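A quick aside before the break. I want you to see a complete sequence-to-structure record at least once, exactly as it would be stored in a machine-readable document. Don't worry about memorizing anything.
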Amino acid sequence: MIRGPAGESARAGDPTVPLPAGGPASAAGATRGRGQPRYKSPAGYGPRPRRARRILRRTVVLLVTLILLALVAFAALLAVTPSVRNAPQLAKAQATAHHAVYPGPAVPARFAASLVATEDHRFYSEPGIDIFAIVRVAAGYLTGGGDQGGATLYQQLAKVLYTQGRSGPKVEAEQVALAVKLDMTYSKKQILRMYAGVVYFGNGYYGLAAASCGYFGVRPAGLSWPEAALLAGLVQGPTADDPVTHPATAQAREAHVLGRLVATGVLTQAQARAAQAVRLATMLAHAGSSCTG
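That is the input. The structure line, written in tokens, reads:
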């Protein structure tokens, strides 16, 4: 008889060997540790979700940091730009220099709708600036595409009153700050009236009253839809789109404005077609005469 380590007896030649301490589970673990690979998770699982969360967290932190820096920079820009409380005085000085009456008549609904539809369709809801347009312009500069347009009526007014004759990214940033200040200081009606009182409409006409009387022989309140659309289309290129010297381009701009009026729900397609059907020669038949409307 042969005695085992624990005092058990076994016959000679018995192949039974004592189990390792811990029993069968320990033996299985020992065997697995020596000869079999550890269990691996299927492809696509494991640490990847944690890495994705880390990337997301870092992205959020970066975006928040950039937003905070932008806010600080914008606050500094607001601090260094001048007050806009003198905007009416500046508008009056410009109107006087161009022999225009200031303040001119109230902006009629048809012209206001045409101007807003083509120049700044978010005018009644934005805080002086169009965030989407600013992002687009910034992306254009970063990619070498330059200015992509999209200046609001506030920014255009700021350009006319405060930064005329200057250009470049720094000036455009100043116009953004001034636009916000204009929105905070004046009502929408006041902004439209100041804008319409100083903007150039081509052919030597400064201000809506002079342009309406000069081109059509009617006061602004008597503007028809095609006349209002034609005038609203002139503010971007008053010389190139002058209806007297460049009738084809003027009509193309008028068609664009009428299309924007349809797109913004102001006019129906039928109304826009009827307005576009009015011949330019008919609209300009009383050009240069005294106002009757």
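Two observations worth writing down. The two ends are 132 Å apart (CA to CA). The CA atoms of residues 92 and 102 lie 5 Å apart. We'll return to this after the break.
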